[in-house]
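Notebook entry, structure prediction.
Reason for the run: the old model in the group folder had no record of what sequence produced it. Starting over properly, with the input documented here first.
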Amino acid sequence: MNTLRYLTGGSADLFWPGVLTLLIVATVCSLLSVVVVLKRMAFVGQGVSHAGFGGVGIAAALGVTTSAPVTLSIVLAFCIASAFLIAALSRRRDTEPDTAIGVVLVGAMALGSVLLHLAHQWHPAERVPGWEGVLFGSILFSGWAEAMWSAGVAAIILALATWFRRPVLAWAFDESGAEAMGVRVGAIRSLVLVLITLAIVLAMKVVGVVLATALLVLPAATALSLSDRWRPVLILSVLCGIGGAAAGLVLSFEADWPSGAAVVLSLVGIYAIARITRTSSARR
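New structure, fully documented this time:
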């Protein structure tokens, strides 16, 4: 069995940092996924995740891609700026939210493409990230330094989400009611944007820019198809996220598929099973 051989053999140290990073990312994204789905922020996540391509381009142009913490910090700063730019454009009366997201998305992707092209000329001796790695990720991209960095960022996300869980859940399930209770809706929306951005930057490392949003949508979509109570939904979302990540890793190792795509396909499969189960139960 390839999975056991890879994770226990001589190459185990090559895979374990990425495996642990993916499980950490899956846990964090699964929790935030509930808010993303309830508030219909999936397209915002798509825009922010693709904006990360521009951040990678900036890091490559500066010649700092060999330093993972520096690169991730640049990508994070660029993604947060993009998230707030989307929010600012969306508040304008003459700009629809989907238009604002589209403008930022394509602009960041184009910027990243140009900068990656120039980075090969400006820094020929540097290891410049390739298109496929940035777009679709790989668990092999993560070393122990990246795993520790991811664990630290995940701890910050979980701490903030736990501290502000009551106003965030109130805003997610009933925004007008939350505002009537004195919840600062604007501040909570900004906090959630930052948390989503942090999670996306973590996810980009293991599943890439294109598939990062899947980890923020599919776990909660599956959980909400099985329950409409917030506590079971949170638990089911985390279980689905971790289960999908684990199943995707096994599929990737056994079938020699790209890890990011295998994880997302596993999550899609779990979602399909949940929908079929619900439909079958409703017909009885």
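Summary: Residues 12-38 form the longest helix (27 residues).
The old model has been moved to the deprecated folder.
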